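Table S5 (text form). Sequence records supplied for joint modeling of the two-component complex.
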Amino acid sequence: MAIPLVDTDVLERVLGVAGGYGEFAEVFVEDRQTSSASLDQGRVEELSNGRDRGAGVRVVVGETTGFAHTADLTEKGLLAAAQAAATIARGGGGGVRQVALATLESHHSSARIFPHDVDKAAKVELLRVANDIARSEGGQISQVQVGLGDSSRHFVVANTDGVFASDLQVRTRFAVSCVASGDGGMQTGYKPLAATRGFEMLSPDVVADLARGAARQALTKLQARPAPSGELPVVLAGGSGGILFHEACGHGLEADAILKEASVYAHRVGQQVASPLVTLVDDGSLSGEWGYGAIDDEGQRGTRNVLIDEGILTDYMWDFLRARREGRASSGNGRRQSYQHLPMVRMTNTYLMPGTDDAAEIVAQTPYGIYVAQLGGGQVNTATGDFVFGMTEAYLIEDGVITAPLRDCNLIGNGPETLSRVDAVASDFSMTPGTCGKNGQSVPVGTGQATMRLSGVTIGGTAS
Amino acid sequence: MSELEDVARRVLDAASDQEEIEVFVSRGVETDVEVYQGSIERLTTASSAGVGIRILRAGAGGAQVGTAWAGSWDVDAVSDALAQARDNVRFASEDEYLVFARPDGVAPAALDLWDEGVAATPLDDKVAMALELERIVRAGDARIRQVENASYGDYAVEALLASSVGVSASMARTGAFLSVEAIASDGASDQTGYGLSAGRAPRDLDLERAARDAITRSTRMLGATRPSTRRTSVVFDPRTAATVLAIIGGALSGEAVVRGRSFFAGRMGERVASPLVSVIDDPTDARHFAASRYDGEGLACRRNVLIDSGDLRAFVYDTVSARRAGTSSTGSAVRGGIAGSPSAGVRALVMSPGTQSQDEIFAAVGEGLYVDSLTGVHSGVNPISGDFSVGVTGLMIRDGQLAEPVREVTVASTLQRMLLDVSHVGGDVTWLPGVAAGQTLAIGDLAVSGS
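The corresponding structure-token record, covering 915 residues in total, follows.
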């Protein structure tokens, strides 16, 4: 599988030209193959295959980064991109630098069944299984939509500091969406499964579980009453709410926001920024998880980084270039959507370390509040710390018991303030896959946490 | 023959007697400049090209379709995509409603969406605009402590959609943008404000206005507190009103309706909104940034009145969803570039303007909440059930005037109720990037959740 995308001597010559203009140059070459299959209203609607191949070249001159990309992987095409990147970076000189790359540090996917080896009929069969199971959950299930996607992403990155590494990342994703119709209108259910693994992660049993989950969620929500408004205690189920930390502090701990002083967490290393129950980790080396990579998109090893240790801020997340300027090591958080994008500081798999409380006890000890079984996405303003996250399956807690289902709504809070209100963390840890958008680029991320409670957070519902 | 036609012809010539082929060919160039503290932080120039292919085969129980795409015009990449699309056909279910669009004789609007100014403006001038934007925001108010991002961007895209059954539609458009994010501080806390200007070429951009927006929006939020939980009138500014209108537009897609995923399903002809509300999708109006001559199937775009004085009058359809609904296409197919297949969607929504200015609306509302930014739209709005809950920042309205700033607050209702509760529609239509224009919009009785 490890067919070189571009010959080493070509990369050396391209870096030689690009590096002649500035203090740093990098070539990122990528070949991504994707496929998808979708079923809707009982019909297999469409199978699609796509392929994107190209290279991005960046040249750094002083504070300026010049970037150009091309789909032309010939030496001529790459040199043209290098020239363009150097020119727009306003590089002086134009001398050619001698660049010698060492042996390629090559990583491979641990997938057992690669996307291109999967029989398309087997994919279609899984779509049908999910559809049939979801519909068998009840006549009120009015719509079922099933999607399967996979990608095989092979890239090589080389720079004038001598980094020369490649990775092959295989990702697979399956999701079921249901609509249930009742007297009170329509409600939705949604269950995704996604991992940096091959087709082996899917089976009829696995997709049937997702289908049942999505259908039952939609059916349950038919009985949902409007969520309350105002501030209440909130219990987040294990695996439901890693997105809370992703938004409440994750983005604010990314070095780009920190260096521009556009984060409420700037200048706060060593300080208490959360409850002592909060130990937060970002770990790109968590094999198989949705945000996993053996290396990041700047060729740096994925590592486990403790961001908050028992409530004390320990470090930020760094990409290669910003770390290089600060004279420190990258934390392996330089990621890009594709060769057409510049890398940025991004989270990988971000999770709250499990605690010692008992999940059932946490609920039992909550007289009145909200139990969130599944969260949707969220959004944060890093400069103010204000963030929202949506709940897509939630219930009231009354006298320590989970009772009525609630309609979808957002919860709103302020990062440091909300994190100080974590007053219980259980041990039933699990991860959830998601897609993180930042400055127009989307990357796969994992979020995780065990059942936990916030002593108070504002619920954006309509009931008084 | 243009290069795009060349690539399309190569694909269409491969069609066998048993199949129909549709090909979408595109290419574009873009520039993106980000500046920080008086120098260029990042500068990107790029060109890209791609091909999307759909193949349809008719059978006894209906037609099947298969698709594939490639991010280049490379001969091998295109022929690989063709082979993949053909292979994918046989796995799709037969569908009696599935057809490729046939030319329907409607002529496209005479729109010129291409401005040579994008290509003709020297890169240095583009960089200078971004630098000037950052400079005037920093200098504009002593309380601006940081400009996190000031950028200029533009693009020029050409596309051709052609099929073996007679469609041939070529499209070309340019666009240019300036945007800036300011952080204001009063020593105790920070607030942010976003400014934007968009046009078809650099000369259309209003640098002063983008700067003023960022300054005003950030500084007036200083000292913001959480209001108490209540029910009140909410006045959306043109930007946030456009966001709300775009969400409603999603439910006006005939595709969402025939698939049972729209709260408008089964309500044709009924009163669904206040009589003040008329919603029109009109991509033939050149003032709209998303204006277009052709839709995503190569049929002419046209003006469709969807809600007329509160009554639901029409949905937008592409060819297939129209057949399912027993009607004909409204020229409203949209597609997400080379990798996307067509589906029905709104493209250029606008609400018929009222006569009141923003100040007149504040005066008429008396007490309420003025909203100038939304967060969590993707996580808190469900376009199928209609549940609506978003985080907002803005200012209270007291005695008919803007009063103290508020933050960390949500507003909630359902989209169905919000449409009926519209109490004032402003005359201040603002053309914005995206699928909807906006104007000041007052909605009575939303739940405001704070402390």
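Note: Chain A touches chain B through 83 residues (CB under 8 Å).
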